[in-house]
Amino acid sequence: xxxxxxxxxxxxxxxxxxxxxxxxxxxxxxxxxxxxxxxxxxxxxxxxxxxxxxxxxxxxxxxxxxxxxxxxxxxxxxxxxxxxxxxxxxxxxxxxxxxxxxxxxxxxxxxxxxxxxxxxxxxxxxxxxxxxxxxxxxxxxxxxxxxxxxxxxxxxxxxxxxxxxxxxxxxxxxxxxxxxxxxxxxxxxxxxxxxxxxxxxxxxxxxxxxxxxxxxxxxxxxxxxxxxxxxxxxxxxxxxxxxxxxxxxxxxxxxxxxxxxxxxxxxxxxxxxxxxxxxxxxxxxxxxxxxxxxxxxxxxxxxxxxxxxxxxxxxxxxxxxxxxxxxxxxxxxxxx
Length: 336
Description:
This protein is mainly α. It has 2 domains: about 30-170, no CATH class; about 180-335. It is built from 13 helices and no strands. It has helices at about 5-25, 30-50, 60-90, 95-110, 115, 125-135, 140-165, 180-220, 230-240, 245-260, 265-295, 295-310, 315-330. Helix 2 (about 30-50) crosses helix 3, helix 8 (about 180-220) packs antiparallel against helix 9 (about 230-240) and helix 9 (about 230-240) runs antiparallel to helix 10 (about 245-260). The chain is globular and about 75 Å long. The two termini are about 35 Å apart.
């Protein structure tokens, strides 16, 4: 019977795990992977807290039940919001479009003429342009609908798999076969990289959203300025802030554009405030994320750039997690 050295086992486990991580992107399974890892981590975080009240494995089962209830509630709220929006549009057709055109009209006087030429002159013209675009891209929209359904299904499957894995009993480490032990070590590093990146980014996004909300909902109203779409901008700031580095740039651009609807000076003030905030957050980012994986902001940005070029938008999301895992492996082997 052939014998394998520890190095052979390590290389085999690396090939299996990294090959699987590579296939996740072209097979469009990234939502499933992230959802599974998130549920797995949340169960492991909730279980110790619940074990103070309930002994044994029932605490882990309760954690899964609570997460399941939370997921169903969130999905129900999302569908209720969509239905409410559709009913509102049915009762007040064009209301959202008229509100948007109001912002465009106010911004028109603040923008250079070459940009103004590309803006719709009226809501009717904008509606015609949208209808024309929809007619030309109907096939693309159908594909987008299929992709959205695929993403939704894979998310649910990933959550279920994460919950199932979290409920499993871990075997005794001394009883594991060499390859099983090596794979367990690889996956432990992947889970740790996910935890370091995602939960750190959530903290950063919450801080960014809090600072932005103070500016939009408190500072500007105190100065007698009411920015349109304030609540929407705050929600988008949090969601976009979950993307490392690039998310802040996108949210800043949106807030600045909306600020132009009032005046060029409001836009400049908003942009200046956000730049100052993000200079402070740069150090927080380096402390929170960089401290977790010993990586600087430019390293994460470079990883996102390479993965985006290779895999598109999913690569932007996967890049920091994959890079954090790779760096963990290299650090474990004493190479960096």
